[in-house]
Amino acid sequence: MAYFPIPTGSLLALGAILFCIGLYGALTKRNLIIVLVSVELMLNAANINLVVFSRLGLNPGLNGQVFALFTITVAAAEIAVGLALLLAVFRLRKTSDVNDLNENKN
Amino acid sequence: MLAYLNGGMVVFYLLSVCILACAVLLINLRKVIYMALALGGIFLGCAAVYFLVGAEFVGVAQLLVYAGAITILIMFAIMLTNHEAMEPALRWTWRQVAAAAAAVLLCAVLLWTIRSTVWPPSPADVDLNQGNSNPVAVGIMLFRDYAVPFELVSLLLIVGLVGAVILARERKEEDE
Amino acid sequence: MGLALWMVLVPVLAAFVCVLVPARQACVQRGLALAGSVITLLLALLAWLRFPGAVQAGGGANPAAAGVPLVSHLPWFTLPGLWQQQDVTVGLSFGLDGLSLTLAGLTALLALLAAAAVRPEEAEMRRFALWSQLAAAGAIAAFTALDVLTFFAGLELSLFAGFFLIDLSGDPQRRAAAVKYLLYRGLASVLLLLALFGIAYGVAGGYSSLQPDANGNLPGAPAFTLAWPALQHNLHGLSTAVFPDHARAVLFWVLLLGILVEEAFVPFHTWLPTAHEHTSAPVSMLLGGVLTKTGAYALLRFGAGLLPDQLQHFATWVAVLGTINILYGAFAAWAQRDWRRLIAFGSISHMGLVLLATAAGNAAGLQGAMFMMVSSGLLTAFLFFLAGAVQARTQTAELGRLGGLSRPLPLLSGFWLVAALGALGLPLTSGFVSEIQSFIGSFHRFPAISFVAALGLILSAVYLLYAIQQTTFGPLRPEYASLADAQARELWPAVVLTAVVLWVGVYPNGLGQVLGQTVQQLLQMGG
Amino acid sequence: MVAYAWLVPLLPLAAYVFLLVLGRRAPEGVAAGVSVVCSLASFLVSAAVFRAAASQGPVGPYLFHWLTLGSASISFGFEVTRLNALMILVVSLVSTLVLLYSAGYMHGDERFPVFYQYLNLFVFSMLALVLSPNLLQLYIFWEMVGLCSYLLVGFWYFKPEAALAAKKSFIVTRIGDTGLLIGIVLLYWASGSFDYSTVFAAAGAGQWSLGWVSGQELTTLCALLVFLGAVGKSAQFPLHVWLPDAMEGPTPVSALIHAATMVAAGVYLVARCYPLFQASPGALATVAWIGAITALLAALIALTQRDIKRVIAYSTVSQLGYMMLALGVGAYAYGVFHLMTHAFFKALLFLAAGSVIHAVDTQDLFEMGGLYRKLPLTAWTFLAGALALAGVVPFAGFWSKDDILAAALNTGHPVLWGMLLLAAFCTAFYIFRVYFLVFTGAPRQPERWQHAHEGSWVMTLPLLVLAAMATIAGFFNSPLNGDGLEHFLFADSPQHQIGYTAPENVPLMLLSLLVALLGIGLAAAVYWRPRQSQRPERWARAWGPFYTLSYRKFYLDEVYYAALVYTGKGIAAVVDWIDRYVIDALVRVVGRLVYSVSVLLKFSQTGQVQAYSTVAALGVLVLVAWAMLRAGGVH
Description:
The complex is a heterotetramer of chains A (106), B (176), C (527) and D (635).
Chain A: H1 8-28, H2 32-54, H3 63-93
Helix pairs in contact in A: 1-2, 2-3
Chain B: H1 7-28, H2 32-52, H3 56-80, H4 94-116, H5 134-144, H6 147-168
Chain D: H1 7-22, H2 28-56, E1 59-69, E2 72-80, H3 82-105, H4 112-131, H5 135-153, H6 160-191, H7 196-205, H8 215-233, H9 242-245, H10 251-260, H11 265-272, H12 274-278, H13 281-302, H14 308-328, H15 332-360, H16 376-390, H17 396-410, H18 414-439, H19 446-451, H20 457-472, H21 484-489, H22 506-527, H23 535-551, H24 556-602, H25 609-631
Antiparallel strand pairs in D: 1-2
């Protein structure tokens, strides 16, 4: 497929903004699922950076894209295990609110 | 300014707007199930961006794994737990403030850095795929240079799969 | 010639075997601790026999061990390009010069006697064997290390082993005492580390204001090294342009501060009486006899050995500090109502004399300080051993609750008197030889200060005889009438200690020959 | 023969080691027998050495290396001079007799073998002290005899008074010993050696210096510090307070250690270091004055004491003062002479007193009386000792004391002479007060009197020998013997004879004899067969405050207790208080501070991962921003 010369800065900016939104979500959301989702968002932002930098640098190549693939795979495994954990916890506690899972009440 | 615009760039900016809109929605929506839908939008948009920058294989993988599998998985998870769950209304506790400040300031710092950096122009003449199509080139790389990590990742997936099954399994009485 | 290395390794091996043997086999555990110490002691004796020959043969050609007769080298790790593109190798290098050999032998001896003094009902034997062997290994490593980093490693090992030992047995407040000990000596370690690395850095020109030449080397600055014999060699006559005086002065005070805390000098001493009061006697023997000698060792090895010019420059300060310690320790000991605290303050008073004698910086003073370390170690351990043996019978170490013990416990009382007389510096015991040499040294340099310090001689007689009078003299309390005196099996550590104390006191030249080698070396540094 | 002088101290040491190995279960006969035999052998060797020294003069020193100090070497060994040949003779003779006597006196004591161990150790230390060729070795055995004194005074450890007295004796002498030690150290640095000969050569030349003090001042300082040691050991004012308390020990100990030998070591020290003192007139004057004050003070105190041993103890202090004065005014030979005669008659007095105490089991003079009929031998020997002490011709004390009095007057010290004469009067009075109270008159406590009986031969034989010595020892240096002792002491170099000697002065002799007889007469008037038993009490009441002052020993004990012990304990309490409530409190405050901070920080540990990540994110932000600012952005 064709290659469209999109400015690098714009792509990175997209990644940065997505990352920060994901960060904000991960830090503030109270539903465990949404926290996981926000983490996925941050991973996605990182993926964009990987793909963009793939063609920059001293040795332009496909390394970045391959790394993005690995990230996607690991993210898939992570979300699967994470959701399984969530289900187990939900069965025990009947909640998916992170504040209700805090055991360190002082 | 307009002289620099080409078709791809226009598409990219539109896509960006969509992605960011979905992201903002994701943060602001209060019903969990809608959030999952917004996430699907983000994943789709990202896949399109990958296509735009010539990473077709990654884009397809994004479509299949993220937009296809993970979004659905998350929806299943929401349905299996309390699908009526609502995010509580935003209350500006110090943690909220700190998180927001951290996010915004980090974003500002990153953007300022990106902006103040002179990025080298993408070398248009270099063929990343070295004459092959992108999926073929990625495949060659995966199985030649990254064969061992690839196998390890497959192992990780298996372990993740089995682990997820064991964790999510309904416990019987005698197991406890 | 791996004697020094084996002296460190044997206790470590003994400790490992202790871990493997089940805890309930207390006899085996005690046997392991005894065996480890005996072998170490035999190695020390072997080194003692070989020592004169090794001195005559002279140190090896290796600058990292210059002037140390018995050396064993084992490379440990290399830090590539640490300083000006030079690799710095840290060795598991141990060497025995006069001071190191003596103190290592003392450590092995006291570890042996402490293991013999443990009462199974007081402390779990396995933990004691394990930690006491590790403490001995650490102390020996610190005493024999040729390398600043190895010294520090040994120091830390003994520090942590000491913590677990104090926490092992005693009264309920021992945990707090152990934590106090750990915090104080941890701080001391940090200060010592800072000072020693600062010196190594400074010798290599780290504080120099000179301009590097074309190759990036400072003119006249030796290569960076962490081995103290090499540092000593390099420092000898090193230009102040390379290592400025003000940097030396700051490092000296950091070192001195570390030593003051490490050695429990006033006003950083309160951990010592507390620890002794709340732990059990065998631990006190090790703690008072060996583990508190590392500070004085650092003073002689690194204070007098590496920064003699600074020590001489600030000698009056150090001497005043020493005198304060002598008098403060003695007066505080007089006021104590508990034997263990009294012994602790007495040892503080003794170590003050080490400070005073070292400050004098002449042959008599340095040799006196070294004798004092050995003598104080022996006698402190001796007194704690006896206090422990009596406490096991009377359930108390309070002066007011003892009395007339000579009748039911004639042997223990007799040894107690011997130990007390040694500690107050009676001639023909090691205490006297140490004090006379120290005072000969100090009167030469600081007559006025020494006059004041000599008051300590009177005070030591006052507090020790007062305590003895309250303990073994006087009418017998009826509740102690049926106490059983110690049998040979329990008493042999006291016999051994008496023999050693008398040997040093009657024929000091046996020890003096060995220590004299280090004294000569230190004097060459200063001169 | 002189080369075998090391046998003299070594024989008692061998006995000590032998008894130590035998332990506490050794039979009495073995313990006493071995000790007496060793001591007797020691005496015989001493006699041979004395003869050899008399003919050959000083020999030695024989040395071996003891310790290396830098480039200096310290040696140990022994030497024989005329002075210490005389000393070992006296010491070994008295020791033998006391060891024999103790077999009877200590019979039945459960720690009999231990007593003999200690005594043997003492005899060894005392002989080694005397034979020492250098100051350091002297100091070592100086302390060792102090240790033995401590052990023997506290021998009956279960008596609280004995325990206190033992401690007091050690600590008070320790004060003097510290001065001696300092003096020795200073002499070492000034002369470069501990050896007597080197030190005296340097002192004689006077051209020595320590940097901060030099010449004459240095000599005086060292001499005074050495004298401080002698003051402590010889119980001179102001450190005399330990000796009377030391009477808590068994009586043979008092006779041997606290009368004849150890307390005389101070006098011996001054005599041995006489060249040093001669080089400093100030030091000599101090010695003389201290001696005179002690002699008079102790004699005054002895007038009123009720305890028989304390009277004799103060008498010892007083007589030691005489010796010091003799040395101080320059009469070296007379001081040594009096040391010798005193050793005999004072040991005799103590042993006789011991015999009395053994018989009546009390030490209070006013519980005795009329014992002549029960203890005739003791009474006669005591009388010999008392006459010798009072200075009645021809007993030993007469010759030596008279020499000292004459020397004091002839060297131009009339004040000191007057003090001594007064002391001599008191001496005659108090010793005959004791004699009359104990042996004459009616028994004051008949039941005690009933049970009194003479000891066995082991106790009476030493009394007889000593009584003979107390009677004849004076002739060694009398005109009848041609002043033999002086000639013996100065035989090597008559032209360099040390100190002052003079021919007898008959009017002075008569005067002192008159004074002594007056004292005896007064004592007889008051205490001999008092027609009314109240006479002594009336006598005491007549003197009122003076009597009390004397009886309470001029309140010196109380003054010292207040000045030294309370002060010391006060400082100790203050130091302890500072230790607990200032230093340790500071430490605790620091600990509390850290603890409170950590308690505060505890609340930040909410357990919420999101809270932690927020902080982490802020941290990342700061780090990134800082890195960017440092780099000035990426260009």
